[in-house]
Amino acid sequence: MKQTVATPANSEPVRHLFSYPKYWAECYGTAPYLPMSRAEMDALGWDSCDIIIVTGDAYVDHPSFGMAVIGRMLEAQGFRVGIIAQPAWDSAEPFKVLGEPNLFFGVAAGNMDSLINRYTADLRIRTDDAYTPHGEAGKRPDRSTIVYSQRLREAYYNTPIVIGGIEASLRRIAQYDYWSDKVRKSILIDSNADILLYGNAERAIVELAHQVANGHKIDELTNIRGTTILRDSVPEGWTEIDSTRIDWPSKIDAIPNPYEMKDPETQSCATDDKAPAADEPAPVRIIPMPLHRKNGLDKATTYIRLPSFSKVRNDPALYAHASRVLHQESNPHNARVLVQKHDTKEIWVNLPPIPLETDEMDGVFDLPYQRRPHPSYGDAKIPAYDMIKTSVNIMRGCFGGCTFCSITEHEGRIIQSRSEESILKEVENIRDQVPGFTGTISDLGGPTANMYRLNCKSDAIQKNCRRLSCVFPTICQHLETDHKHTTQLYRKARSIPGIKRVAIASGLRYDLALRDPEYVEELVSHHVGGYLKIAPEHSEENTLSKMMKPSISSYDEFKEMFDKFSKKAGKVQYLIPYFIAAHPGSDDSDMLNLGLWLKKNKFRPDQVQTFYPSPMALATAMYYSGRNPLKKVTYKSEKVSTAKKIEQRRLQKAFLRYHDEKNWPMLRTALKEMGREDMIGDAPHQLVPAEKSNLRAHALKRRVGKPGANKNGPRKPRRR
Question: 287, 373, 331: which is closest to 466 by C-alpha?
């Protein structure tokens, strides 16, 4: 087993995920399921757990469930891992069911953010929870990570708490909270946890677990990639890039070193970079953001200071600026540490984790999962499991960078792919292990269906790149766009004995697919069951530019190719496009044009999506601040209008469902207020019909006074 992971030139070596000496408890072997009770621990011969994971999801031992991946990963390192799934949170007692762990508690809200899981975009309470037996709602608290951590502090005050998962990951710095309509502090402070792991955290959790097992305290582990920690102050010897302002003057003189003593008559205005003597303290050197590129800074001892929590809470423009900086510092090969003051504490966001290599990804997915729910659930249906039990995740990450999506913020822009052998082996395991398997693989994909093994052609370019998207505003010339590996994978998967069909249900990046017609033909001919879901999201360039999505012309081009290959395959198939209402930048005129586009193309969407401001997303920064963080943010920069009132959001949603009679009164009123009464009528180019009562009154009015008309007024209609 190799001991390090290959990284671009000048990057530090990274330890291979499976190269650590195993913890002594490996002698207990592999658990059939990670235990959820004392009885299961006794059956395994355990007197205690080394690590206990508390999760807001039901425990499904499957690689699509985060607690199973982290639990099995730690087990493979030799640790004894227990699971507390969906505990009651009205007291600390349910958190004591497995006793106190020897090393630490791990806490995650689950595969979904607990608030998005419970509330719709209109802040209505959902009636179900797909990650709970029988789909029962209400089995996890709002802000689960905070609540679980607080209960664990009550149960075992001195035991370290490690938080992670998507809920914690997207709240690692001060973030706008849609549900309370305010900016909240980093979840690390609100939860009173010891450390936060962000992103897919295999590297961080393995390193942390071994360090703690070797006797280190968590507060000593200050530089693990993919972690966020609390500090009282910045250590000596660091250089600060001051990014707390957006109104720097156009010309900035170099800043003199305030710690240097010189004769005032001979002192120069230039900064003296002379290092202090060995016995002198090394102060923090501060460089204004506009000057930082002119200094040869050591990334290992350089951090960017973001505007403080109090500043971003009170100044939306600074919030947008902080969001822009965070997203620009997301490439693990060139990112810098981020620091944000929260009252008297410093939130310290360490560098992003180095992506997993292919053999490491294989190792994670090849762990001994049972691929089914824990036996304690009996025959209870867990909807999320039923949906993914015959699907295969082939990759991680997304370089699309859509501003409304959290995948990139959580998993990163660099695609991490499994080997073909590992994927095909999992297909065979599904065939052999999943009860009632009918021969259909429900999905062979990931965050995006067609990004498998598509990476930057140059390590050197990737190392220095700070683009927020590899495909917007255009597809980068350095991006590999040949889908041959995916096409070959599809062919091999459907040729496995016992496999009748391989469906592709993950979202398709159709502008990327256009670069490889052979892939589109393969997809359309063999992997579309009559309908293919894709997501243009909007028709208007103004809104699409705020989403970082391609022009609607790309959709038209893809549809032409889709129809051509469907006809060639002798199939009648349809595209099902998805759209978003009330996205930042989309005004009522944009939604009217989108509604007309839908009508022209004979689409009548049944399920439509309203923009949901998830924490840390760039579109959420637009929603809260009214500014566009895709460009440099200033107090005079581009303003972004957003539908925020519930009536506005419902109106924009109504434009997507123009065909629903319930929406016609609202749309007629809006069209009149917009001065677009010309869009009311029965003509093909008009959006909604006029009111029938008005039509009848108009017809009767025309009849009155004409020869043969009833001079005493209109006739009463006959009863039928």
Answer: 331
SS3 category, 664 = helix
pLDDT for the residue numbered 293: 76
- The identity of residue 150, as a single letter, is Q
pLDDT tens per residue, range 550-560: 999 999 999 99
CA distance 464 to 299: 13
Please give the single-letter amino acid code of residue 273: D
- 3-state SS, 361-399, equals HHHHHCCCCCCEECHHHCCCCCHHHHHHCCEEECEECCC
Q: What is the CA radius of gyration of the chain?
A: 29
541 Cβ partners below 8 Å, 6+ apart?
551
Q: Tell me which residue of 347, 221, 242 sits closest to 291, measured CA to CA.
A: 242
Helices (H), 119-201: 144-155, 165-169, 187-191
Q: Rounded to whole angstroms, how far apart are CA atoms 211 and 281? A: 29
Q: Strand 51-55 relative to strand 81-85: parallel, antiparallel, unpaired?
A: parallel
Structural domains of the chain, with CATH: 4-227 (3.40.50.2300), 378-694 (3.80.30.20)
What does each C-alpha distance from 185 to 191, 192, 230, 275, 627 come to in angstroms?
10, 12, 12, 36, 21
- Residue 528's SS3 state is coil
Tell me which residues of the chain have a pLDDT lower than 50.
1-2, 6-11, 258, 260-281, 695, 697, 700-701, 704-720
Q: Please tell me the pTM assigned to this model.
A: 0.90
Does an H or E element contain 559, and which?
A: helix 552-568
Nearest to 131 by CA among 201, 179, 59: 59
Residue 156 and residue 608: Cα distance in Å, rounded?
A: 45
- The beta-strand segments (E) located in 153-281 are 161-164, 175-177, 182-184, 195-197, 227-231, 239-242
Residues 6+ apart with CB under 8 A from 648: 582
Q: Residue 231 in contact with residue 277, Cβ under 8 Å?
A: no
Half-sphere exposure of 184 (CA within 13 A, CB side): 21
Mean per-residue pLDDT of the chain: 90
How far apart are the C-alpha atoms of 403 and 383, rounded to whole Å?
A: 28
Helices 420-433 and 358-365: crossing angle, nearest 10°?
10
- The answer to whether the CB of 402 falls within 8 A of the CB of 547 is yes
Contact 520, 562 (CB under 8 A): yes
196: helix, strand or coil? strand
Compute the distance between CA of residue 148 and CA of residue 168 in angstroms, rounded to an integer. 12
End-to-end CA distance of the chain: 86
Helix extents (H) in 7-87? 38-44, 66-76
Q: Are the C-beta atoms of residues 685 and 677 closer than 8 Å to each other?
A: no
H-run or E-run covering 622 = helix 618-625
What span, in angstroms and rounded, lies between the C-alpha atoms of 305 and 234? 11
Tokens of 532: 């293919």
Say how far apart CA 623 and CA 178 lie, in whole Å: 10
**Angle, CA of 284, 314 and 648, to the nearest 5°:** 140
Contact 453, 485 (CB under 8 A): yes
Strands (E), 178-333: 182-184, 195-197, 227-231, 239-242, 285-288, 302-305
CA distances from 27 to 47, 57, 206, 255, 588 (A): 14, 29, 18, 60, 65
Give per-residue pLDDT as tens, 103-122: 999 999 999 999 999 999 99
